[in-house]
Amino acid sequence: MDPSTELLTEQEAAVYDRQIRVWGVDAQRKLSKARVLVVGMSGVVAETCKNIVLAGIGSLTLVDDSPVTDEASAANFLVQFDDSEGQGITLAEVCAASLRDYNPMVQVKAEAGSIQSKPDSFFGNFDAIILGRSSVSLKKHVNELCRKQTHRIAFYTVDVRGTCGSLFVDLRTHSYTSKRAKDDKDVQLELSYPSFEESLGVRWSSMPKRTSKLLFALRCLEDFEETEGRQPGHVSSQDLPALLAFWKKACEAQTVAESLVPEALLQKLLRAGSTELPPVCAILGGIVGQELIKAMSCKGEPLSNYFFFDAGDGKGIIEKVAPNT
Amino acid sequence: MSRSEELNQQMDINGIEKEKVLMVGAGGIGCELLKTLVLTGFQHIHLIDMDTIEVSNLNRQFLFRKSHVGQSKAKVAREAVLKFRPGVEIVAHHANVKNQEFDIDFFKQFSVVLNGLDNLEARRHVNRMCLAAGVPLVESGTTGYLGQVTVHIKGQTECYECQPKPAPKSYPVCTITSTPSKLIHCIVWAKELALAKLFGDKGQVSDLDVRPTSNEDGAVSNDPDEAQFFEVRSGENSKAYAERVFDRIFGQNIVTALQNEDTWKARRRPDPLFLEKVLTEDDVVTTNGVCSSEGTISASASLGLKNPQETWSVKDNARVFLESVQLFLDKRSKDVGKLVFDKDDQLAVEFVTAAANLRAHSFGIPMQSLFEAKGMAGNIIHAIATTNAIIAGLIVLEALKILSNKTKECRMTYCVEHPSGKMLLMPVEMAEPNPRCYVCSETPLVLELNTATATMREVLEKVVKRKLGVTDPVIMQGSNLLHESGEDIEEDMVAYYTALLDKKFVDYPTPITTGVVLTVEDYHQDFRCSLHVKHRETFDEEKEPEGMVITGDLASLNNTDASAQPSTAAPSKIQNGHAEEEEDDDVVMVEPVPKAATAGTKRKLEEEDTQPTEKRLRVTESVPIEV
Ligand SMILES: [Zn+2]
């Protein structure tokens, strides 16, 4: 059937009525065809999944083999109380059950196995991939695989550390319609994104002075974790001296002053360790959900290419980090 | 260290598990807020919501399922949250927050009140209760991608009512009855006049005629022949009735209106629509009378018009009009005579769409689809889950600051669609209390009206309830009681008040005229203000359709400018539905982002040119209270 004449079912029209008034029927139809892969069921990822399942994406595949522990459910409301008693059930399976219940019109499935064990061809089955907390090398690896596919796969990686949240987006080349401010007319626009690796290559000294301090602090912390062989988030206040030494070296390599990031911010991130403050998960999960909906429906200007939020000052800031071409 | 202790340390808060919070509203923001509160570690939550669950809630109110439709939002939300946090104490009240049970002592038990409300009236009420009880309030609102969170602490920040708030849009009667220029005018006509005249309570619409008026002042004639015309005649079948009504309201009434040449001097003349010209014999298809799949009676279903996004042709609008009238008479006869428009009533929405489109066509106004017309008629709010989730997160962050005594760090935060200086979430410092606010300070108000014609009933309706947001008013002139409301009033007083209700102000025992000060009180809200009465003869029908104006400028009392022109009865106005009915379950009161959002910037209620105007229909109209 020609997609432009395809009607929504009566049930879709009734349930999605209020959001169709925001983004239109055409966007809703495109959204209902999107196949999304999610890796790592943290609190912020649970929030994101809730948002995109309610919005009515086509299908959602969850990858997370970890067991259902108290820690895993700390900021994850998809885990219901009696779920934790089940033997051998994975976090992905438990979350999938809740999400199916939220919206029976969306296909939700739990995929067994780790993301590292998946063949390259596996990634070709999706239109968007959301990576939860992961190491720098895993982010690079998955982003590269996305970029190798013939069709565009939208890539997101999101993490919350205590009161701070961050998001990276790579939409490769993205065409979308957007309302022009001056006359409210729909215009067709295009945006190009750098890869994750390309964005990492941008020298700090070349970035504007007012760039979010979280960008540098989080990069330093993630590099520190990788160098030290830690799992992401497995840090504590005791690591402060080592992290400060690491920071000093990074600043020398990037030819920036150490004062670029206050010590207190690094300390705050270390103290957060692997915890996520739930209101910050809600905020970041809302932003990721909204960005994915924009990208899949090709409607509205998506953010490019980093987003940072710190509950300390309450600012939600977009940073564009791309090599000069 | 437990997880929540760790979080508490990060936010520098101790013992949030002991704090008791009140949530008002369990809708779009409420569901998100309740979830985020319990995940954050709150253990004692009271939740008030009078609404029940609807299908159109399910795309964002994630605590509800299809099987819950019709049940209490507060109660279902409570049960859903207990499934992932069983130990938490949540008290669900399926009730109106304005009920007497929620008095000042009730409010005093909470450390903070969090609003996720859907209407101005309830917001103002909660604002007053919080001021009276001395409890901090976190207020919120979303529409589409836009949202905002504000903090209100008595004596420290501005209260919710320190700045004028948008009021529901209303239209002058003559625009609706005689000279529509936008589709919304035709929709209001179809909904408030045509639908009401044909199927509503006849007693309720006596002063507003479907027929365009020929009177200059907008008053409407009460032709007895007119009233009888809309009765079904003996032996008349529903088809004949529908056709007779069609020719009258779209044909003959327009012909009559055209006779008043003055009206059309500077306007496009409307074209009368008669059935024989709109539909030829071949066009009148026989319908199957089939209901839609959900068992709802529907004219578009029986005519095979499947796509609600498509704008019907004039012929199809005529068919839908005829079919919907017939279906009301034949299949929904028990509703006829007492029908009130409801956006979830499919047949009523079809009738309104078709009638509005036919009238629009007549007046050269572009027609719209059922989907769009339904949105306009029902004042449906554009609502998505993501904005609600973000706003709920921001509410909890503000609540945490209040509870850790860091109120100086509280911010008003805007969630915007297009980044403003790289910012998607934009914190702004809260303004100080407005010393001239009639709610949180003791500023006198001036009430201008025509004391020769004005009555207590009008003042109560148009000013005290609608503008001042008072629920149970007590009106006094000096120490004399002029009006009270409530249940425990003695019978002889009730009779006394009733007698005063429709008496002209000049005819009062002590005449109410320029210089008289009326006191308005609401014991429940612990609200009190003074109204300084000032007589004025004339009012601008377009700008002051109520025939009375309230301002906060005391200086104008000395400035008598009685106009020479005597006026007839104050023109009435037509609202697009009533404030409470027209609201959906989310929240509309999004204030425009300040052009230059800096600390202490006063927010102005001006339209942002980047926003599509139709979305802001109910958002940009400011209440004419200039404090
Ligand atoms: Zn105030």
From TrEMBL, chain A:
Domain spans labelled THIF-type NAD/FAD binding fold: 16-311
Superkingdom of origin: Eukaryota
Position of the signal peptide: none
Family: Belongs to the ubiquitin-activating E1 family.
PANTHER family linked to this entry: SUMO-ACTIVATING ENZYME SUBUNIT 1, UBIQUITIN-ACTIVATING ENZYME E1
Keywords, ordered alphabetically: Nucleus, Ubl conjugation pathway
UniProt key word Nucleus: yes
UniProt subcellular location: Nucleus
Gene3D superfamilies to which the protein is assigned, alphabetical: NAD(P)-binding Rossmann-like Domain
GO CC terms: cytoplasm; SUMO activating enzyme complex
Gene Ontology MF annotations: SUMO activating enzyme activity
Listed name of the protein: Ubiquitin-like 1-activating enzyme E1A
InterPro entries given in the database record: ThiF/MoeB/HesA (IPR045886), ThiF_NAD_FAD-bd (IPR000594), Ubiquitin-activating_enz (IPR035985), UBQ/SUMO-activ_enz_E1-like (IPR000011)
Annotated metabolic or biological route of this protein: Protein modification; protein sumoylation
Pfam annotation, one family: ThiF
A biological process from GO: protein sumoylation
From TrEMBL, chain B:
Pathway the protein acts in: Protein modification; protein sumoylation
InterPro entries reported in the protein's UniProt record: ThiF/MoeB/HesA, ThiF_NAD_FAD-bd, UAE_UbL_dom, Ub-E1_IAD_1, Ub_act_enz_dom_a_sf, Uba2, UBA_E1_SCCH, Ubiquitin-activating_enz
Domain THIF-type NAD/FAD binding fold: 15-438
Domain Ubiquitin-activating enzyme SCCH: 322-374
Domain of life, source organism: Eukaryota
Domain Ubiquitin/SUMO-activating enzyme ubiquitin-like, residue spans: 447-539
Annotated binding of Zn(2+), by residue: C159, C162, C437, C440
GO biological process: protein sumoylation
Keyword entries, A-Z: ATP-binding, Metal-binding, Nucleotide-binding, Nucleus, Transferase, Ubl conjugation pathway, Zinc
Subcellular location: Nucleus
Active site as annotated: C174
Biased segments, Polar residues type: 558-575
Renumbered residue ranges of the record's region Disordered: 558-627
Record's subunit section: Heterodimer.
Family in the record: Belongs to the ubiquitin-activating E1 family.
Name listed for the protein in its UniProt record: SUMO-activating enzyme subunit
